[in-house]
Amino acid sequence: MDQVKIFTPASVANVSCGFDVLGFCLEPVGDEMVIRKVESSGLKITKIVGESLPLDVKKNVAGLAAEAILKAHPQKAGFEIEIYKNIKAGSGIGSSAASAAGAVFGINELLGKPFTAHELIAFAMEGEALASGSAHADNVAPVLMGGITLVRSINPIDVIQLPTPKELTAVILHPKIELKTMHAREIIKKNVTMEKAIQQWGNLGAFVSALFNEDYGLMSRSLKDEIIEPVRSLLIPEFDSLKKASISAGALGFGISGSGPSVYALTKGMKTAQKVSKAIDEIISPIGIDFEIHLSNINDQGIKILSN
Amino acid sequence: MDQVKIFTPASVANVSCGFDVLGFCLEPVGDEMVIRKVESSGLKITKIVGESLPLDVKKNVAGLAAEAILKAHPQKAGFEIEIYKNIKAGSGIGSSAASAAGAVFGINELLGKPFTAHELIAFAMEGEALASGSAHADNVAPVLMGGITLVRSINPIDVIQLPTPKELTAVILHPKIELKTMHAREIIKKNVTMEKAIQQWGNLGAFVSALFNEDYGLMSRSLKDEIIEPVRSLLIPEFDSLKKASISAGALGFGISGSGPSVYALTKGMKTAQKVSKAIDEIISPIGIDFEIHLSNINDQGIKILSN
């Protein structure tokens, strides 16, 4: 195999009570990438379509991630990467993670899969670090492993795949305003009260239990975040109205995707997701901001091979 | 039925990464109580054996808890309570919780079980508040519900029973020094760094997942507490040596039980528990403090009826 074409999906990180640890992978939204093994040595990004991003390997998340895996598994051959972006940079649904994860996934395939999905996380994180200013795994993990993942630790890397309840469905609103991850990181406080921290870990523990038991009621009661959301939501237009309307329309929970500006709702079933989508549309449409709404199952597989 | 005799067990709360939310119920250590329905109205504690505790209903955790359930379910008849304490007050393995939970469990039996175990938690908490200075559920919940419990919220009360991996075994060391819960609460800081809070909720989420999957390796990696343990362990003699020796002897994790002075280790299987117990004994024996070591399965049932 000398070439692989893949679909590399968007993802939602910082899922409410799981700030910095919990993420899930989306189904219909994602980039395409072509990774090619070539005779002349070296790594090249030969084409980027859909976004204005640097072709320079050292300035591109896919490039840095690809370098990381090739450093761990040196090759005489070279590699070329083409990226067809559908996920907008800065949208908050893992645009850079899709590129970084896609690059290492594709190269791993062409190398004959020397690394497991869990092992690939470390390489993809080296790309992610460029985009967000710090190495984190909560987007690349669900993209590489599929489904819903919990990052217990990044040093050493220890990521757990959680079960995906069958009917769990996501609604994503991407309001097209720019919000850099680095800026969104800066406004988070360095300390948190013990009381709120305890609430948060109680909620996350309960949410994990609810995923195993497919207990949608408990998912709903535990999808909360009183630490980061109250601060970051100030940067997102109509956040409170969108949340209220989504919950009224039957959403289990509603929160910020990544560091925003995208927001997510989780529902039981596609029918409720459609109602939530309609409720969101009714609030966001009159504002006059350009936006997109995605409805998605949880993508249990992660990256998919389209052809090779 | 006019009388019930029960075994009301000890419990471990504040289980490492689950500070203030995670607890489990012990098997061989516990008090006995006799609850009797009598014709003359009113509530009386008629006997306490084994500890010097007030018979005055208003000054006794069992009395206050009993009052709470009877307020919610008023009776013409009266109730008498006898308490045979085996769990030392201030030991850190839920002495007051055993009494409070036992009282409401016994009265509920004699009333024909109008309340579920989950509903009884609120009444038992009113007793607990007297002992610890604040209402908390992390000991009464496992005693009433059995097994391993996670207190997601106490207002409203929302407690989840987690699965008990078959081979999970506890070793408890109770060094007989006095350490009041209120004092141990005071030394905890009011704030925690975001970094450590995220670590803690990542660990708790992982630990919950590990219980469902019976993944002992992951239990071990996630049984950590870098927030409370570094402070409270200073009050416990030889804590660091005990922890190191227990882990070396094969313990999955080691931490403070409740607010101390008792400490717990969790192991896979009784054989390893015995090795850990021996390692603990070798450290604590030479010091000259009076102590007890208990080995216990996780008690899935909680309070047991001995006769009625």
Concise account of the structure shown:
Two copies of one chain form a homodimer. With 308 residues, chain A is α+β, with helices and mostly antiparallel strands.
Any descriptors?
homodimer; alpha+beta; Ribosomal Protein S5, domain 2; Alpha-Beta Plaits; 2 domains; 7-stranded mixed beta sheet; 4-stranded antiparallel beta sheet
Q: Secondary-structure blueprint of this entry?
A:
The structure is a homodimer of 308-residue chains.
Chain A: E1 3-13, E2 22-38, E3 42-49, H1 61-72, E4 78-84, H2 95-110, H3 117-132, H4 140-145, E5 148-154, E6 157-162, E7 168-175, H5 181-186, E8 191-193, H6 194-213, H7 216-222, H8 229-232, H9 239-248, E9 253-256, E10 263-268, H10 270-284, E11 291-297, E12 304-307
Parallel strand pairs in A: 3-4
Antiparallel strand pairs in A: 1-2, 1-12, 2-4, 2-5, 5-6, 7-10, 7-11, 9-10
